[in-house]
Structure formats: C-alpha cells, structure tokens
Fold this sequence. Notes:
Oligomer: single chain
Number of helices: 11
Distance between the termini: 25 Å
Helix content: 25-40%
Mean pLDDT: 89
Order of helices and strands: EEEHHEEEEEEHHEEHHEEEHEHEHEEHH
Number of domains: 2
Strand order of the largest sheet: 2-1-4-5-6-7-8-9
Structural class: alpha+beta
CATH superfamily of the largest domain: P-loop containing nucleotide triphosphate hydrolases
CATH topology of the largest domain: Rossmann fold
Shape: globular
Number of strands: 18
CATH class of the largest domain: Alpha Beta
Radius of gyration: 22 Å
Largest sheet: 8 strands, antiparallel
Amino acid sequence: MIRRLYVDNYRCLVDFTWRPGSEALILGFNGSGKTSAIDALDLIRAWTGGWERLEGLLGSETITKWSTSDEVTFELDIQVGRVVFLYRVQFLIQRRGGLPTVQMESLRSGRKTYFERKRETVILSNSGTKPKLEFPVPLSQSAISPIFAAAGSEVVGDFLASLSRMIIVRPMPPLIVNDARNPEPRAWYRFENFVAWYWHQTANGKFSSAMLGLLVNVWEEFDYLRLDQIGRSSMALSAVFSKPERSSGEFAIEFQELSEGERMLILLYTLVAYQRATPPTTMVIDEPDNFVGISELQPWLLQMLDDRPEGGQLLIISHNVEIMETMGESKVAYFSRADHLSATSVSEISPDQTGLSLSERLARGWIGAEA
C-alpha cells in the first residue's frame, strides 16, 4: 500500500507530496497533474524492475519547465505487511543532450538501511558481524534487482514484489491486441497487452476461480473466457456465451470482434478477479468509465470497493458522476494548479455546506475554489 509519494522537478510536480488512503478518487481539471503523479508511480516501478531503459523514462522534456535544477527526485513509502519501506532515488538530466544518470538511491525501513548508492557505487548493509558489501552498478540501472540477486534479501524481495503486483492502467480497448506469443506478468499502462496479461494470470488457480461467475450477474449471456492456441506458440482470447437465442448450445466470439464496451467490461472484471487472487495490492485505474454505461459501471465499482482486501488500495481517476457519488467526497484527492507555470498541489475538499452533490459542485467550479 502506498503511504506517500514525493516528486520534485518532474513535469508539473515540484516539491509535491501525496499521501493516498486505502481508497481515493482523484479529481482535478485537465492539466492539473493527475496523470503526471500516476506516471511518476509507473516510472518508479519501471526503473526498479528494469522494465525500460532510463533514457526512455526521463529526458530534458520531463524536467519542470520553469525549474533551473537538473536533478529529479522521487520518494515512495510503501507498506508491506507491518514494514514501511522508504525508497528514494535522484537522477541527473542533461538539458542539452546526453543520457540521464542516477545520482543516489537508497532503501530503508525505520532505522534499517538496506542499501545506499552514490552514482555507480552501492553499499549493501549487512546485519551482525558481517562487513558491508560494496559493488558497482551501471548509472543507467537501478541497484535493487542486482542487490536482490547478489544478497538474496527476503525483505528487499518483498519490496520488489509489492511494486510488481501493482496495477497502474488507463485501459484503451481499441488498442488491445487479440493474441499473444507469451504470457506477461505486467499490465502495460494502456493495457494493449491484456491478452498476454490474462494468459499469465490463468496460471494462478485463485484467479481462475475468481473469474467464474463474476460477469454472469451483469451480462446474462456471458459464460466464460477461453484461450485458444493459434499457430505453434500464440494464444488468442475468446468470450464464450451460453444458451443464446437461435442456438442450441454455446458459441464463442473472438475478443477483437466484441464491441469496445464489451471488451472494457471484461477487462474491468478481470481486475476484480486479480484483486481477489493477489491480495493485498495497489490498483490505480485511470478513467474506468470509458466505453461502459452507468448500469454496468456501478455494479463493477461496488464489487471493487466491497472486495478490497485488508491492506489493499484502490485509486481511481474519474469525473464520472456515478463514481463520484458512490465513492463520496471524503475519498477525494483534489489536484490543482493556478496556471501552466505553477506546481501541482493536492488537497482534500471542504465538507459540503451547500446541499448540492459533489458532481454539481465540481461542475460549478466550487470545488476548485475551496481546495
């Protein structure tokens, strides 16, 4: 569970601190920094997991436009069980070309320091009488995975696992590829690899069990999802429907042949199954209301909120009226900026004194004025 996110000199995030709760509805007008905060989270995951090259994550275009500093800092506090980790990393970005490099990196919990890094040199702390280990790591690579491989620290492994279990997505059904060559444990931001991700999750018996019956209550015809092998190594996804009209038995429709709304509905309910099968986890979902109707959205949202496990976290970006009224103003994290040359701030909203709904106050611009 994310306890705190701190970002400095990244896009519109300057000396920015956010402490999300176990459930949060992220609101704010366009350009307020909502996506930048989520991108910062995803960047930390990609960097620590070695999923992308550093130059693909940071560049001169990601530095705050009005800043004179070349240093970009990220801090992330994550609670795993009873342990709260503090991860900190600072990068140096050359504004006039050149590759970004890491300046410092560390992982702590309480008074315990697991490692500290200054540029290429990493110092790994050991308990007892063992001496500290010192070894080099390339400036373009996080030290966490090499440390876990070298020292086999179970605690560091817990930190890495908590990051890898996170779901951070803004699903775009039109971009989803219908088949996959290999299962994929990580959900891409726009979920283009949904089929590969779903394939990977089916290896978990708890996920497959959780999927059974989830969609039947909101989609009467739906029966189950099926992976079919195509060619030598690829798998394609189909939705199977039972007892349709003018048919004596079930029939299947390839995932890409479903409507965008149907694909989105399937995707949203697989996130319910994932939350059940992989607790606790942090789920960040950007605009889950795209492509689906209110009658389909509310049952899904209620299911997600009811199923959130102890220690789990659900963060949603949306301006959908149904989501706002269901989650309520006490869950709102309001992002705001005065203009394009000012930094993002995040705040709670004042208790309602008007008698109007949250969505109506937002539409009138009163929430931005009071935050």
